[in-house]
Amino acid sequence: MAREVVSTILERCKQCYSCVRNCPTKAVKIENGQARVMQDRCIYCGNCVKMCSQDAKKILNSKLSVKKILRSDSKVFAIVAPSFPVQFHNKKDLIYRLKKMGFWQVWEVAVGAELVAQEYERLDYQNNRYISSTCPAIVNLIQKHYPHLIKYLAPVLSPAQATAKLIRLTVNSDDIKIVFIGPCVAKKWEAEEEGYKGLIDEVLTFEECEELFLEYATNDKENIPDQVFDGPAASLGYLFPVSGGLLKNINVYNDILSEEHEIVEGIKPCIELLECFEKTPYIKLADCLFCSGCISGPKVKDDSSLLERKGQILDYMRSIPLGEQVKGKLYIMELHIDLDREFADMHKQLAIPSEKEINEILRETGKQDIKDQLNCGACGYSSCREKAIAVYQGIAENQMCLPYLLSQKNYLLKSLEQRLDAEKRLTEELKGTINSSFDGICVTDGNGKILKINDAFEKMMDRGKDEIVGKNVKFLEEAKILYPSIGLIILRSKKPVTLIQSIRNQKEVLATGNPVFDSNGVLYRVIINIRDYEEIEQFRKQYDSIINNKNKKITSYLDTMRIISHSREFTSTLELARRVAKVDSTVLILGESGAGKEVVANFIYNLSDRKDKPFIKVNCASLPSSLIESELFGYETGAFTGAHRHGKPGMFELADKGIIFLDEIGELPLSQQVKLLRVIQEGAVMRIGGVSPIDIDVRIIAATNSDPGEMVKEGRFRADLYYRLNVVPITIPPLRERRDDIIPLMYFFLDVFNKKYRMNKTISKGVKQKFLEYEWPGNVRELRNIIERVVVTSKTNIISLYDLQSCFDSSAEYSEQKVRVNGIIPLRKALQEVEKQLLTQARSLYKTTYKIAEALEINQSTVVRKMQKYSMDQDKGE
Q1: Residue 817 has pLDDT above 70, yes or no
Q2: CA 749 to chain centre
């Protein structure tokens, strides 16, 4: 249809689903929780209109159209439904007001009802069965939802259509407009029914008629002349709006039908009859009224009971003079008007889901089992299964299920409570962290209003929080509390700023401010951090004292792990190891013997998430070739002669959940490399003599002092195993390439062995210089051994060059040369390398650039310039 007879006012729809619950054909589609009337399924019974508590259902308003008709030059007829006495108790008043509005004549539809009854008497009940077609809601119901019953619809126009046709055939005028006035919503559809459009031009409900009376001020009660309906009077046609009214008008076949007719009224009985009509062949005529007679139509406004309304119809019928009734009856019987009617199949089948699809939808709302299907009807559907089908068809939503929403609400509330508790704990922790900071912290909004400060900021400003919080940072500057204001600078520049500020008590502070922007790029917060500048200076001096005091043990922040790292080269290596420690990637540590491969492996283990799990170390070079497989992978009972009778787990099993360190992996025989590769690929080991693999979760760290790439080329190491191990390679530089670590390591080992042997030895300056010049082919292990030897063998408490010479002679080649060249390189690059080495060695021996310049016999400014060139740290305040 071009016009929507019933629609939804979406802003009033409140997700009550009352319209779904009370719609007999489920012609309501739910989208985003709001109900929309599906015109191709709606039968316009008006039930949803009556049941909607929010007045969210809207009926097609015909008042404007009727007023337009009344303003035309046409002869406008009002035809009034036989049920009018229950709404308009005064016939004279009704006719008067209608004509005063502009209607030319007012007719009773009861006249057309008797014409219809006359047609029903002519139907062939001997060979056919019929369902009455007087109720437009029933006609719609059959055409849209029970199309197989269309053949049983009585092929007769409705009383309203018959009345309109009678007027158009008997009134001598070509320009006639007819308006039906009644209690029915479905009549608005009937007026535009395909094939019969034009019989009735417009339909007014009783409610709309009352509203028009008010607009036209036709409610005057005095001096109303006697008014009668135009057209012939009816007799039994007045009974059409009450139950069984059609049958009471059929006389010719009354005896035949007395045993073979059925009067059905109301939604449920009508649908039940249609469901079983073809199974009850004894019924020749079913008189169906979707309402309990038209006297209870959706647009009847009357608080009286059904019996009282029926009485009002009978009282009106008795008020018509018998002579007028007889005269009208005779007139009607003489008429032979064609009232034939045809019907159309308007059924639109919705998709039918499979059982699997229905069950999947049910599971989405937590209905895993039949016992979970409450069938409570809160969604408007009689069962969870029916609603699941509607969801599949796209006319319902899962969110319509009240128990599901309640369970979701409870889940969300619980989740929100947990998140709120977590947020509270986090807030308290953050608050405690901020307040425990020695730095003063101040937070402002995007306009400079101070939102929060910590205790340290309050103490530095010597002002209470209530004097600062809520003020603008401009206030701090104007009151000379903190100036210049770093907050104002950031608000203007919108960039991070660091500067020295003065505070009221004449102290200076180092202030750093950072802007914070929201997702739209708008300045949202400013975070200001201030620190006492005097404390920073004191800390710097203490740090310089520690760094420069070579008579004390020098260790890095890694001292807790017994790792000494002062050189840039080794620190970079440890930084890489620290990053990979937190992940489970395989690591291959490369480096010369004694460089500290095992130390780095321990470092990774202690920083990893597996630090509380096993750490198994295996030196592949020390394992006998005959025992490698059994030691690594284990064996079962009786696997070989001499095997333990209970079997034995291998190193990989012992390292489950932890880390295994395979040192000197390059010494592993090729035959065992294959098995190791399988363990890495499959994450499982097979014991010797075993029949099923054992799953393991082991992280592998391998190490070698050989070049595995060259070994692969020579065929001494499997390429596939090499690529499996070489996920994260870490190369440890030899000690000769990280000379900044030599003196700190020397002091560290000296302290260790002094404590071990209860001595108090020191090292002379000459020995330190020799240590810096030596090439250390044995790396850190050689340095450690030499320190232990001289501590034990030196005769005095000062270890001299004399004590050291014998150690070098016996341990490795020592060169007295000041500079050594191991290969052919460009002269310019060689000079730069020598220059860099000299500066590095001198810096480790002397505290200031002045002393370095004196030792190298160059200007101090040259030392500073060259140290900058080679990116070396310099001491300040010299």
Answers
A1: no
A2: 58
Cβ–Cβ contacts within 10 Å for residue 554, how many?
Answer: 22
Write the DSSP symbol of residue 472.
B
Distance separating alpha carbons of residues 247 and 220, to the nearest angstrom: 39
Q: Which pLDDT does position 251 carry in this prediction? A: 67
Give which of 95, 67, 115 is closest to 333, Cα–Cα: 115
Residue type for position 350: L
Split at pLDDT 50, 70, 90, the class of 815 is very low
Cα 600 from chain centroid (whole Å): 43
Q: How far apart are CA 430 and CA 454, in angstroms?
A: 11
Least Cα distance to 526 among 534, 514, 511 occurs for: 514
Closest CA to 59 of 19, 3, 13, 12: 3
Smallest Cα–Cα separation from 650: which of 691, 593, 690?
690
Q: Of 838, 754, 840, which is closest to residue 799 (Cα–Cα)?
A: 754
CA torsion, ordered 632, 636, 640, 643, to nearest 10 deg: 80
- The pair phi, psi for residue 684, each rounded to 5°, is -150, 150
Give the span between the Cα atoms of 104 and 184, in whole angstroms: 23
The DSSP code for 700 is E
Q: What tokens were used for 473?
A: 């940072």
Helical spans, DSSP H, in 399-502: 402-436, 455-461, 465-468, 473-478, 486-493
User: What is residue 354's predicted lDDT score, i.e. its pLDDT?
Assistant: 93
**Which of 427-441, 494-508, 753-767 tops mean pLDDT?**
753-767
- CB–CB of 687/633 below 8 Å? yes
**HEC letters along 300-352:** CCCCCCHHHHHHHHHHHHHHCCHHHHHHHHHHHHHCCCCCECCCCCCCCCCCC
Q: Are 647 and 639 in contact (CB under 8 A)?
A: yes
pLDDT at 588: 93
Claim: this prediction has a pTM higher than 0.70: no
The Cα–Cα gap between 38 and 832 comes to: 88
| Tokens coding 653 | 């099993």
Prior bond to 515 cis, omega within 30? no
Which of 631, 696, 695, 699 has its CA nearest to residue 659?
A: 699
Query: SS3 of 91, please?
Result: helix
d(Cα 206, Cα 203) in Å, to the nearest integer?
10
Left, alpha or beta for 647 (phi > 0: left; psi -120 to 50: alpha)? left
Model confidence pLDDT, tens digit, residues 304-313: 888 888 888 8
Contact indicator for 638, 620 with CB cutoff of 8 Å: no
Phi-psi region at 46: left, alpha or beta (left = phi > 0; alpha = psi -120 to 50): left
Which 3-state string (H, E, C) describes 355-404? HHHHHHHHHHCCCCCHHHCCCCCCCCCCCHHHHHHHHHHCCCCHHHCHHH
Q: Residues 286-325: pLDDT tens digits?
A: 999 888 888 888 888 767 888 888 888 899 888 888 888 8
**HSE-CB for 32 with a 13 A CA cutoff:** 2
Q: Is the dihedral of CA 392, 398, 402, 403 positive or negative?
A: positive
Using one digit for the tens of pLDDT, what is the confidence trace for 696-745? 999 999 999 888 888 889 888 888 888 888 889 999 999 888 888 888 88
- What are the strands of the beta sheet with 130-131, ordered from one edge? 130-131, 285-289, 261-265
C-beta pairs of 503-511 under 8 Å, 24+ apart in sequence: 503/460, 503/461, 503/462, 504/461, 504/462, 504/480, 505/462, 507/460, 507/532, 507/533, 507/534, 508/533, 508/534, 509/440, 509/460, 509/482, 509/533, 510/536, 511/482, 511/486
Query: Strand runs (DSSP E) across 81-201, as ranges?
Result: 105-108, 130-131, 176-182
Query: Cα 312 to the chain's mean position, in Å?
Result: 62
Residue 673 corresponds to which amino acid?
Answer: Q
pLDDT tens figures, 438-456: 788 999 999 999 999 988 8
- Tell which phi-psi region holds residue 192, choosing left (phi > 0), alpha (psi between -120 and 50) or beta: alpha
Q: Please say whether the beta carbons of 244 and 334 come within 8 A.
A: no
Confidence of residue 545 (pLDDT cuts 50, 70, 90): low
The neighbouring-strand residues paired with 799 are: 763
